[in-house]
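Exercise: predict the fold of this chain.
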Amino acid sequence: MNAVPPALRTALALADAGVPVLPLRAGKAPFGNCPACANNACGGRPNMKSMGPCRCPGVCHAWAAATTDPDVLTSPAWSAAWRRAVTVAYHPGAAGLTVVDLDDTAAVDWARATLPATRTVPTTRGEHWIYRGAMASHNAVRPGVDLKSTMAYARYLGPGTGRMTALPDAVRALAVKKPSPARPEPHTVAVPTRVGGRECQHRTPAYLERGIAMAEQRITAARSAVHATVYRTFLAVLSTHGRCGCLTDTHITRLFTAAQAKGETLRHCADAWTNARTTLGL
């Protein structure tokens, strides 16, 4: 009988405790989409119980593939992934958790001085602080600090130490966007009316959907220079749709998911998005 890969043993133990898990490949990235699921052709898998519109049996939906089902984890469709896996990840939000990812010593010092104590897990350069309670995930809420909960994954780096405490308001407040400083009143600029009085095409659902789908396809089709492709694609999307307010969190999540399926980390996606916004002055 074939030996159970170490990563799978860890995953099964976590799943038994009710924590949805998935394998990560080299580079600490999720496995890419299979051909049938490329460019979201399968309809995606929007929840953690593998009950979305996609019936793909493989581990090809990044954080959305995370599961507690031992039959799925040990299935033939997942076996090759476990043999190649370098570590295990979990979906904090589906387990009712939020991970405050502290990326360096300065961030750890800030947390110790600011946040309530909870369970901590050492990372390569910093620490994960794990709280009970889920929230939306956010990157770069302050220097060296990310919040990982719903629609995100975190590496499993061991059980950690300390008693896990409830998600505090101080962490939730990090995700609240601070109002911009007061600026001088802008000059009024007359915008020419479109011929026939038609609605701005950027807000037309079909136009926007086509643009997002093309962006997903461009990222998915990248065979090299993925970092550059993701950035250029984000730049193109924002240059077309970034100023009229039609982009929603759902659209952004689709782009990030496509990039993560190609091996980009959540931090890289957030950085590329921020850099594209900065380049365009948004």
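Check your answer against the key: The chain is about 35% helix and 15% strand.
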